[in-house]
């Protein structure tokens, strides 16, 4: 069992307590599935389980090569994902970066990999949405166009950075040295380090991460189509737009709330089981050592 610092334990305790408060302050948990059949409730639970498994596998692949145990990784995933689902405007991602940086003992790499994981997730989402609107001959909503522009700018910056870095580095190395030029060179070196971390993962495992993201979003949207009784293309288009808008802005979407509730219950349940079993194993190991000493 890895020994955590008091600061790490304190931050985790405060964040998890606030996440639990956000979850419990809503008094509609009992009624959120009230109009659903047992088959539909089971479908949400199975969908949440499969989607979270695929997303956990995707991040594990991205983190491959770092030193950590499978048990620690699963426990960390089950802890940080409910926080990301509950906190508005993706603020939970900061906690996610912190915890994974602590897990692999490298906060820079943890930050880059979490951002890359979100980028692959967005890439898969855009692929499915653009494909759906194209084949259904629907009008592209502003949300999809905004995501496409942001995605394109990030991808453009990724491919242009190596040439930009070499050119600017050569330029600043050729001018007379000064405190200002040395500071700029240090900043470029940090930026290049971040780029190299991202490129190492993207070039070796990028396609696999993308395919796993496609699978996760495809299953989630398929569940949305099933629970809405496969309506017309226009109606399904509206459902998907509302669902994705709510996912991005923490807005209101009943199918999304059902998926989030199912995911949180499953993940927190698994986290509690892993946490308690770890404590019991730790106590059992101490008792075993004491018996040997006696």
Describe the structure.
- This protein is mostly helical and 294 residues long.
- The protein has nine helices and no strands.
- Helix 4 (92-104) packs across helix 5 (107-135), helix 5 crosses helix 7 and helix 6 (142-174) packs antiparallel against helix 7.
Sequence-ordered SSE layout with sheet pairings:
Layout: H1 6-24, H2 38-62, H3 70-86, H4 92-104, H5 107-135, H6 142-174, H7 179-227, H8 233-249, H9 254-293
Q: Give the H and E element order.
A: HHHHHHHHH
Fraction of residues in H or I helices: over 70%
* Cα radius of gyration in angstroms: 22 Å
Structural class: mainly alpha
Sheet with most strands: none
Total beta strand runs: 0
Counted by DSSP, the helix tally is 9
Q: In terms of per-residue confidence, which ranges show pLDDT below 50 for 5 or more consecutive residues?
A: none
Overall shape: it is globular
Q: What is the mean pLDDT?
A: 84
Distance between the termini: 24 Å
Keywords:
294 residues; 9 helices; mainly alpha; globular
């Amino acid at each position: 069992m890895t020994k955590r610092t008091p600061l790490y334990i304190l931050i985790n305790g405060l964040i998890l307590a606030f996440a639990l408060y956000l979850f419990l302050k809503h008094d509609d948990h009992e009624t959120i599935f009230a109009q659903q059949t047992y088959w539909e409730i089971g479908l949400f639970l199975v969908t949440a389980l499969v989607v979270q498994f695929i997303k956990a596998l995707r991040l594990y692949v991205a983190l491959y090569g770092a030193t950590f145990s499978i048990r620690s990784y699963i426990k960390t995933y089950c802890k940080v994902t409910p926080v990301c689902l509950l906190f508005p405007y993706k603020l939970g991602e900061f906690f996610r970066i912190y915890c994974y940086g602590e897990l692999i003992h490298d906060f820079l790499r943890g930050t880059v990999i979490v951002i890359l994981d979100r980028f692959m997730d967005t890439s898969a989402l855009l692929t499915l949405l653009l494909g759906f609107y194209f084949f259904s001959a629907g009008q592209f909503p502003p949300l999809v166009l905004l995501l496409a522009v942001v995605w394109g700018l990030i991808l453009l910056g990724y491919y242009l950075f190596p040439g930009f870095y070499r050119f600017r580095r050569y330029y600043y190395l050729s001018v007379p040295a000064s405190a200002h030029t040395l500071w700029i060179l240090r900043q470029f070196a940090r930026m290049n380090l971040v780029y190299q971390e991202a490129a190492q993962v993207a070039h070796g495992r990028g396609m696999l991460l993308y395919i796993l993201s496609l699978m996760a979003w495809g299953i989630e949207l398929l569940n949305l189509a099933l629970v809405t009784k496969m309506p017309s293309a226009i109606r399904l288009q509206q459902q998907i737009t509302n669902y994705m808008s709510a996912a991005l802005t923490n807005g209101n979407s009943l199918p999304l709330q059902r998926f989030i509730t199912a995911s949180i219950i499953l993940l927190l349940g698994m986290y509690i089981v892993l946490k308690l079993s770890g404590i019991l194993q730790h106590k059992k190991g101490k008792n075993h050592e004491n018996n040997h000493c006696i």
